[in-house]
């Protein structure tokens, strides 16, 4: 491994750790929010569904960078609070990914056969119970590949947090480059790191899917 | 809430916004054309019988896709700075290589979805391999993958915002500049959000004009 | 003492927009009776029984189950459905759960039974339908006939007063039909009130008390079994029988 990398490895690894942290929190938060929004839209809950529609149309048409700017600069100015880059970034990522996951879970809910829902109702379960115990578990299992595609995408997108000053992997790398002026090994290193991490995430997804998938 | 919304400064700077918008369109168009070219070549390679071509195609796709777009842009702008490419071209190449990988995957699966028999029939009527590909396979594959291509297209338009980081004066760059002058943070970013949304919507519905693409298009232009 | 019939349908009509699906259907089912509904496709048979447990709404008429009006706004449908079991043409087992869990689910969440008790009953029912070895199997690993038997056990787990069957063997390969019919015959022998939509005329002949013939949304005739097969009252029923029994 090139010397310049070895020398700065601890710093770069800290950046990687931050990347992983941001990605992890955003994935969990985004999944919870995304599933909620998707369910609300699928069942057309009055008022909430319309709000969700606007949210999704808006976020899906907006670049991630702009979403981050709105979270880091826009909201604080509007609402009068001081933002910390890390938290603004996580908020932005959660809002961003949830909009995509919501659409994916909505498609997943559609794949559950109406006959199955009827059968569950016929055994005396209330509608809410049917959704909770039958429809959602099946839909969630079936969308695992789609969800993990989004997770990989999010992992790559954490690099954009560097623009608002978060020292995750890309940010740290550019800082190191500012000192060492050795862009090729440094950028090569982080490109490889992203590659390996994305691969690992995809593999986890594939493993999970092979274990949990159900033929509905 | 002591912040009063004031849209006037945004309107006053509309020249900058329009300039940025035009640059975004130019950037996206050029990036898209290159991405399509790359994607068709790499994707077709991935659907051939040659092991080498298929592995090469897969390697390209995995390598390009799993590298964040921002890193792509840094590669051209920083790592390859000795080439002295203008930032605009760095962004174009970054977008093209990155999105090209996505296009390649779609082209590959699109070609794979065209029944084998089609190509064989074409060959049997005396067409060469190249003609069969061009006249028979591609058109059918295109019809099938149009929704996915539309979604890549809208993704690319939004991704172009990252060019602002390497100092390309596209829409997001101008927005930041305007914000620096007027401090109308919320208004300016909401405005460009809506402009991106508008651009993406126009392009997506424009693709509906491709014959045979209408069915399901809205449903499947999900992701980007 | 004659008691009121368990299930009473009175002039039930249903339309999907302009299409009339059920027209003035009137019928009563007494406790312990086994009634078979037959007729050509599209005659509304499935729709009719799905109205009885409220899975399908109806626009006019009345359906009373043990005195409770199914279509009334105040009726607690989930509670009603625990008293009527239903078996579907495509089995509809929950694919993400084992056979045992399929049978336990509604007991715990609809009847609020303790999990242990629910499991004991579930195992007993699996044994009764001959599948105690496959308690932990997922539906994907069970044959059609096995799945349908689990489905019957799932419906029985709630101790229903009556059972509705919607073409229970129509989706099965021929060699698996008898294993399901055997369970149904046993059930009838134990005095369960059953309403069965089916094409299996052999089953009807041996077990049913009455045959109801439907065509184009109407109940054309209802006749005691022996008489139906020897001398059906209506022309349409005669035509139908001759076609079905020809095989």
Description:
Chain A is built from nine helices and no strands. Chain A has 216 residues and is an all-alpha fold. In chain A, helix 2 packs across helix 4 (85-110), helix 4 packs across helix 6 (127-142) and helix 8 (169-180) runs antiparallel to helix 9. The longest helix of chain A is centred in the first third of the chain and has 40 residues, at 3-42. Chain A starts with a helix and ends with a helix. Chain B is elongated. Chain C has 247 residues and is of the alpha/beta class. In chain C, strand 9 and strand 10 form a beta hairpin. The chains are: A mainly alpha (216), B mainly alpha (224), C alpha/beta (247). Chains in contact: A-B, A-C. At the A-B interface, helix 2, helix 3, helix 4, helix 7 and helix 8 of A face helix 3, helix 4, helix 7, helix 8 and helix 9 of B.
Oligomer status: heterotrimer
* Largest interface between protein chains, with number of residues from each side: A-B, 43 and 43 residues
Which percent bin holds the helix content of chain B? over 70%
Percent range of helical residues of chain C: 25-40%
User: Could you tell me the number of beta strands of chain B?
Assistant: 0
Principal-axes shape call of chain B: elongated
Give the total of beta strands of chain C. Answer: 10
Low-confidence stretches of chain B: 216-224
Cα gyration radius of chain B (Å): 21 Å
Order of helices and strands of chain C: EEEHEEHEHHHEHEHEEHH
The secondary structure category of chain C is alpha/beta
Query: What is the terminal-to-terminal distance of chain B?
Result: 34 Å
List the main descriptive attributes of the protein structure presented here.
heterotrimer, A: 216 residues, mainly alpha, 9 helices, C: 247 residues, alpha/beta, 10 strands, 25% strand
Topology:
The complex is a heterotrimer of chains A (216), B (224) and C (247).
Chain A: H1 3-42, H2 48-60, H3 64-79, H4 85-110, H5 114-122, H6 127-142, H7 144-157, H8 169-180, H9 183-212
Helix pairs in contact in A: 1-2, 1-4, 1-7, 1-8, 2-4, 3-4, 4-6, 4-7, 5-6, 7-9, 8-9
Chain B: H1 8-12, H2 14-45, H3 51-65, H4 69-79, H5 87-113, H6 116-124, H7 129-159, H8 171-182, H9 185-206, H10 217-220
Chain C: E1 7-16, E2 19-29, E3 34-38, H1 45-52, E4 60-65, E5 68-69, H2 77-81, E6 84-87, H3 99-109, H4 115-128, H5 144-156, E7 162-166, H6 174-189, E8 193-197, H7 201-207, E9 210-215, E10 218-224, H8 225-230, H9 235-245
Parallel strand pairs in C: 3-8, 3-9, 6-7, 7-8
Antiparallel strand pairs in C: 1-2, 1-4, 4-5, 9-10
